[in-house]
Design goal:
single chain, mainly alpha, 2 domains, 69% helix
Length: 260
Amino acid sequence: MRVRHAGVEVSLVTTRVPALRLRPAAARLRQGFGHAARTLAVYLGLIGIGSVGVLRLAAWLQQGHRLGGHPQLITGIALVLAQLIASVLTLVWLRTRAGALWSQAELPGYGFRRTTRSWVLRGEVGGLVLAIAAALLGHWLDGGRSAQASLQGPLLATGLRWSLTGIGIVLSPWLEETVFRGALLGALAPALGTLGAVLASTLVFTLLHAFGMHGHWWGLLPIAVLGLFCAGLRVRSGSLAPGIIAHTSYNVLAGLGGLL
C-alpha cells in the first residue's frame, strides 16, 4: 500500500500476523527438564507405592493368617496386578500429554510407530547377545551368581520370584522403554542435544537399577550398555519398537537364567 505524506510517497509493507493461540498445558509439558522430572516422579511414585503397598498388606495379612493356605501365590498375583495397574496409569498419563509427539520419529518424539523387520531383528539379536555377555561377566566376576540372582535371592522366602520374573519380561520392557527412551529422551533432547539426552537418560536408567544390586555393582555395567543400545536403536530407527524387543529379549534370557 502506498500513501502520500508531505508530498512524499511512502510505500508501506503490510504483513499478516496470525492470531495468537494459547498452547494447551499438554504442549508446554512435553519438553524440558520439568517434564523429565514429572515423568520420573509419576513413574517411580506409581510403581513404588503400588509395590510397597501390596507387600506391606500381604505381610500384615500373613501375620494374621488371613491369606489361607497359599499366601505366596496370592501375594505374587497381587503384586503383578499392582504393577500392571501402575504401568497402565503411567502409560495413560504419558499418552495424554504427548499429543503428536507420541508417534513422531524424530526427537523429541516418543517413537511409537512401526519399524522394519531388519530393526526388529537387530533389537532381538542385540538383546540376546547382551544378556549372554552379562551372564558371562557375572560368572567371571561373581562366581556364577548374577546380579539378577542377588536381587531375587532375598525374595525367595516370600515366593515372589516367579512374579518378579513375569513382571520383568512382560511389563518392564514396555514401561521402561516408554519412560526412558520415549518420554525422558524426548524431553531432554531439546536442551542437551541427542547425544547428551542419550547419556543422561541412560545414566538415570542405570542408577534406578542400583537398588537391586546388593553390592554387586558390576551388574550396573550390563544395564548401562543395554540402556545405550536401546537408546541407539530408538534414535537410528526412529521407532521405540526395536528397543522394546531388545529389552524384552534381554529380560527373558536374564530372567529365565535367574530361575534355573
